[in-house]
């Protein structure tokens, strides 16, 4: 299992046999059976393709989320980081700005 879709549905990576390396959906709980996941060209989805889509969805989610709210929260956190010696401290704002360019 590589992903829990909720409601008892899963996405699984096939590690043996002729479907080796492909990702399948196990939707038996929701009465939809098991099936290979496919891309927009109706080709079976490899793990690499699946993972790329997963990352794109995560990035889209964080871009839609109010990043200003995150920045304001980090601004509030920074001054309270007294327990870390300044020479070992890094800026959380810098860290997140590199991730969410």
Number of helical regions: 3
* Overall pLDDT level: 76
Radius of gyration: 20 Å
Which spans of ≥5 residues are poorly predicted at pLDDT below 50?
83-90
**C-alpha termini separation:** 31 Å
What summary fits the major beta sheet? 4 strands, antiparallel
Helix content: 25-40%
The run of helices and strands is: EEEEHHH
Record the strand order, biggest sheet.
1-2-3-4
**Class inferred from helices and paired strands:** alpha+beta
What gross morphology would you assign? Answer: elongated
Strand content: 15-25%
Number of strands: 4
Task: Give structural notes.
The chain has helices spanning 47-64, 67-77, 92-99, and strands at residues 3-6, 9-13, 23-26, 34-36. With 101 residues, the chain is α+β, with helices and mostly antiparallel strands. It has a domain at 1-46. Strands 1-2-3-4 form a four-stranded antiparallel β-sheet, with no helix packed on it.
Features:
four-stranded antiparallel beta sheet; single chain; 101 residues
Task: Summarize it.
Helix content is about 35%, strand content about 15%.
Q: Can you lay out the helices and strands and say which pair or pack?
A:
Blueprint: E1 3-6, E2 9-13, E3 23-26, E4 34-36, H1 47-64, H2 67-77, H3 92-99
Antiparallel strand pairs: 1-2, 2-3, 3-4
